[in-house]
Specification:
It is a single chain. A two-stranded antiparallel sheet has the order 1-2. Helix 2 packs antiparallel against helix 13. It is globular. By secondary structure, it is mainly alpha-helical. 63% of the residues lie in helices and 1% in strands. It has one domain.
Length: 422
């Protein structure tokens, strides 16, 4: 018996994928004042970081700018990729994920095996335990990103593009991450879990063998998406508006495969710069905890802020590498959207406001329990050869499937063909 997911009229939330408005959007002139403002703010932040922090921080800010620029131009999605796969069987974006991961493991393998950072320090990937905390966290994150309208990276680049409701998602993402940080010791110490498992170091395969196994897994997943597409006669994704020639770099959509390669390279550069892969949500827990501390809550006593994390709580947020990357992503997406003439604030309704509150809370809490989000756990975990990254993806897909039935309750569409969220 075939399970049918709910089907309602498509209401694209980003005009860039609306076939009615696609051509007119392609002709929008660049918003030069906004571009200039974004570049000026980026330059000032770069100078401030160079003057007050180690050179690692301004380097990471540049990487963040490039990440945001790439995410926006390709509308590279994790939320929408999972939703299209589960709702209509379209696996184009999922295959882009597999390409991204294939390039990432190819770059990560020698770096993790032999490399040091540009500053001479040791590197380490994201390899985390598999247990109840991961299972619960990834599942509710999958629900949350479908209600909140974007994943962790999608929230940041959508804010950069002016999508107003995502500011609500971000606020409650931070709240959820802070509460998750407070509760994390219970989930990790009281709930059952297994030791971290690395395909490279826990199995005897080594990084070479783990690389081969990873490529086989990615190939099988890509093949499965093709089979599902044919079986379900899945519709194709609509093209985005774009310019031609060199102008396409700043005024037009990028192919998903190009963005997949760029994101993998930038993640590897992040690993080589700070000694860890790209991450997003640990900064949200830091921001929320600092705000809580300002209002008199003794967050320093939380188990989450003991040990290695204690220094971050005492330092400026600009000393936090993840915070700097996040600021860079927002600014990069802002410059990209303004260069394409696409920056504008969007409407907030009661439905998407409510969904953003719930979705943000679920994502923030889930990300702390699952040792990361779609970037830190899924992208960074799999690129680091950690089994928890694969399990995160499976559970987030399960959460996505459930969320397909929840979205209509908030007036959110369940696509028949495609959408452009995250």
């Amino acid at each position: 018996m075939t399970t049918r997911v709910p089907s309602v009229r498509v209401q694209p939330v980003n005009e860039a994928r609306d076939p009615v408005k696609r051509d007119s959007l392609a002709l929008n002139p660049p918003q030069k004042a906004l571009v200039g403002g974004g570049i000026a703010v980026s330059f000032i932040l770069f100078l401030y970081l160079a003057a007050t922090q180690s050179m690692m921080q301004p380097m990471l800010m540049i990487i963040g700018l490039l990440l945001g620029f790439t995410l926006f131009h390709a509308r590279f999605g994790f939320t929408s990729a999972f939703r299209r796969m589960m709702s209509v069987g379209n696996g184009q974006a999922m295959r882009a994920h597999m390409l991204m991961l294939a390039v990432a493991v190819t770059l990560f393998a020698p770096i993790l095996a032999f490399g040091t950072t540009f500053f001479g320090e040791a590197v380490s990937g994201y390899v985390s335990p598999v247990g109840v905390s991961l299972i619960v966290g990834a599942f509710i994150f999958g629900i949350g990103m479908q209600l909140g309208g974007g994943c962790a990276s999608g929230t940041l680049y959508a804010i950069g593009g002016g999508r107003t409701v995502m500011f609500i998602t971000l606020i409650f993402f931070i709240v959820g991450a802070t509460v998750g940080a407070y509760h994390l010791p219970f989930w990790t110490e009281e709930m059952p879990s297994f030791e971290p498992v690395s395909l490279a170091t826990s199995t005897g395969l080594g990084y070479g063998g783990a690389w081969i196994v990873s490529l086989i897994i990615f190939g099988l997943i890509a093949l499965a998406t093709i089979i599902i597409e044919k079986k379900r006669n899945a519709p194709k994704m609509a093209p985005l508006p774009t310019s031609r020639g060199w102008k396409r770099l700043v005024r037009g959509s990028w192919p998903l495969f190009a963005a997949a390669i760029a994101l993998a390279v930038l993640n590897a550069l992040t690993l080589m710069t700070r000694g860890q892969p790209w991450g997003i949500t640990s900064a949200f827990a830091l921001w929320g905890s600092k705000v809580a501390g300002f209002f008199g809550i003794d967050v320093a006593e939380w188990g989450y802020w003991q040990g290695a994390n204690a220094a971050a709580l005492e330092s400026s947020i600009f000393a936090d590498t993840t915070t700097v990357l996040n600021f860079g992503v927002i600014l990069g997406a802002f410059i990209a959207s303004a260069a394409g003439g696409l920056f504008k604030f969007t409407k907030i309704t009661l439905g998407n406001f409510s969904a953003s509150v719930i979705g943000g809370l679920l994502m923030g809490y889930g990300a702390r329990l699952a040792f990361g989000c779609n970037i830190g756990a899924y992208f960074g975990g799999i690129a680091s050869f950690s089994m928890h990254g694969y399990i995160w993806g499976i559970l987030a897909l399960a959460g996505t499937f459930l969320a397909l039935y929840l979205r209509p309750l908030f007036g959110l569409s369940v696509p028949k063909s495609n959408d452009s969220v995250c």
